[in-house]
Amino acid sequence: MTDPTSKTNQPKCPVLTTADGAPIGVQQALTAGPRGPVLMQDVQLLEQMQHFNRERIPERVVHAKGSGAYGTFTVTKDVTKYTKAAFLNKVGKKTDVFLRFSTVAGERGAADAERDVRGFALKFYTEEGNWDMVGNNTPVFFVRDPYKFQMFIHTQKRDPKTNMRCMDMQWDFWSLCPESLHQVTILFSDRGIPAGFGNMNGYGSHTYSLVNADGERVWCKFHFKTMQGIKCLDDSVAASMIAGDRETHQRGLYESIERGEFPRWRFSIQVMTQKQAESFRWNPFDLTKVWPHAEFPLIEVGTLELNRNPENYFAEVEQSSFSPSALVPGIGPSPDKMLQARLMSYADAHRYRVGGNYQQLPVNRPRCPVMNYQRDGVMATAADYGPRPNYWPNSIVTEPKPDAQFADPAWKLGETIVDRFDSTVDHDDYTQVANLYALFDDAHRDRLTTRIAGVLGQARQEVQMRQLCHFFRVDPDYGQRIADKLGVNVADFMPADEAHAMA
Ligand code: NDP
Predict the structure, then answer these.
(1) Intervals of CATH 2.40.180.10 along the chain
(2) What atom of ligand 1 comes closest to residue 190's alpha carbon?
(3) Which parts of the chain sit beneath pLDDT 70?
(4) FRET pair for 308, CA 20 to 30 Å: which of 283, 356, 387, 413?
């Protein structure tokens, strides 16, 4: 290894600069005389101090202590009969991923070898957007109603008075919530303390939906089974590890990747048809339940490998942001109440702790084009949209528009249809406006149409014509007055029969 402090054979080192890029001549405080005081005009020093004060962002309320790595997902089996997800459409296809492991209850400095559930949050950078599989190392969870989630987490954190973890509040909550028994049993089983992040499974836990190219929907669960084998720690071994090193799992993951020993998982799904769901003896959307393997066997999809460490922990791991709402065509939600709540809550948490444009950061950025009308906000780079229009609908042919081929098929939930219903059809947008126009006397109509023509005249001619049609549909007099004030001869712009009908 080269010695980075050696002065021989070193490439020329770059000049130190301020954050604005100005070269720095001397990196010492600017003072009036060698003993001080320090001058206000030492902007280099001020900038460094002020930036330092802003180095931390709020830590995650849950899953604060984490470790991450990049990797590759490879499709090994054809699952196109279940999903049209583009990144799964061909055996052998590879997709870049980023995976963040975490403990749940501890703060950012917590020890890795605690008995706790582990987060398993996986971002697939697919060609049709990011798919975030935000799961845990357990197939179930403590509660099934989202109202209880925040309360449950409070019981795992610190007592408000003593600032210590409190077994009384944990067990008080659990004893009042028998739905937690399944997860509590897994947590206190021999698998409650994984020996390393590579020695545990990952589960999507929730039920999701898959939709294939024919628009057929099935329910599904996601499983990532470790290929290193399950290995766990006894409490006494874990306690002595924590005494010597709080970063055991971070160290294990980082060093194994540096050595070229890349941890791998086999990705499988369980599939349940909508018909099976209707007669399944448990609610298939209940997060406290699994689907037994004997009835819903694992179907292999592919292999996940972690093979690259991040270069900068804060930028790439601390700011990595995962949300179950990051879905791609072919993978969708289910009625699971906890999932429905998480669809909102996770992205909201990132907007609070990282910022409204967290998806623009390199680790979170989709690797495909991002085309929407969201604009501005803290730290907006405008990299994707620059000067382009920020509203929809618009009539500019070069601007992004929805494509029906990506629309999800409707859901039938009992008698109710869940769909994106078009709010512009089957509505009368003209009669009540005509009734109002009929109330106006001639002078009022004149003032109204003068005002409108004054501003409508500043729009493109194509826009003027489209809007004029609406005024004509309300009342031909309304349309004609504005057309006259715009200097528009309606017959020049409308098909003859329509102009005739309007006049
Ligand atoms: P199976 O015998 O087909 O599967 C048992 C599952 O339990 C295996 O996936 C095994 O994982 C896993 N397992 C074994 N010990 C533990 C542990 N201490 N903590 C967590 N998981 C463990 O039975 P069923 O499918 O009928 O499930 C029976 C029970 O197994 C469930 O109630 C649930 O608690 C647990 N389980 C079930 C899963 C499922 O999706 N069906 C998934 C994980 C757990 P492995 O194969 O890796 O050893």
Answers:
(1) 66-360
(2) 18
(3) 1-10, 493-503
(4) 356
